[in-house]
Amino acid sequence: MQAIEILERLVGFPSVVGTPNGEIVAWIRHYLQSHGAVVTELPGPEGDRSNLFATIGPKETPGYILSGHMDVVPAAESGWTSDPFRLRAETDRLYGRGATDMKGFLAAVLAAVPALAAMPLRQSIHLAFSYDEEAGCRGVPHMIARLPELCAAPLGAIIGEPSGMQAIRAHKGKAAARLTVRGRSGHSSRPDQGLNAIHAITDVLVCARAEAERLTSGPFEPVFEPPYSSLQVGTLKGGQAVNIIPDSCEAEFEARAISGVEPVTLLAPLRVAAEALSQFGFQVEWRELSAYPALSLAADAPLATLLGELTGIEPLAAVSYGTEAGLFQRAGIDAIICGPGDIGRAHKPDEFILTGELLACQAMVEALGRRCA
């Protein structure tokens, strides 16, 4: 099958983050097995979605991982000019949810599988397809934990997030959390009889603003924009009416960390401020939503050199968005980002990828195979 045909199949599976993914997993598994790949389905603890790991070549020799996620963000936003889960071609543009982020990469890799299977590979090539990346990289840690039993220690992992086929060596880490504060409702004329959850949560909001300002003073990592870690309040919900004491309030916080900084530690002062509210009679719930570490690959790392040679483009030092790459690096596997498409088209109506981008990615994967043969 050609890359466009495969992309059409993949876009047709509405594998929205947080939902069952059995259909897309089954199709990819069958396709890979039909070309002789050794495929392992790895169910997650949720019970209704799985990671997929496949090997082409000798399992016992170190090789390279091609990693991508099968899930996509929802397509409920207005502005789509066609069915987001049906690939639409116009000139060299291929429209559909996930076309760029990141089923285009999966399609290009799968299109290269017949060529890889025909090569006398001395080093293995592994495909690591994950679930729920869009919810904060929730699926891939379960797969990474199983790698020692699935393959020899990999030489590196290529994470195919959209990068215009320019390899990227670094990104920030991220942590997100949701705080829910519950008080006691009542009529606004008797504030002495209630517990105002919105008033209470402002202590945490003030803390968040102070921490965000403090982070601008460093430490710094010049490759990033901005060159320091950051923190923000992303959402705030509470109250029913102006004359009712609000009995609950919810806020979501996000931190982005430069390399060397654990993202969850940036949110720790907020959690301390939140838990202090319990002494005033409030019920406090702090829930971590997601967390993944930063990626930082040295410019002279063999994997960076390899990707520069395969793509013909000098690797980029860093980007602002995050990926699963930091999790591979934390597990001791060198990782780098390189994939087709443009991140600026992701998560938007009429998301698209160019035909030429698909073919360039397929060519890169086949070139990697020749290096391993």
From TrEMBL:
Domain Peptidase M20 dimerisation per the UniProt entry, residue ranges: 170-271
Cofactors (names): Zn(2+)
EC number: 3.5.1.16
Keyword field contains Cytoplasm: yes
Residues spanning the signal sequence: none
Enzyme class (EC, first level): hydrolase
Coiled coil: none
Protein name: Acetylornithine deacetylase
Source organism per UniProt: Rhizobium esperanzae
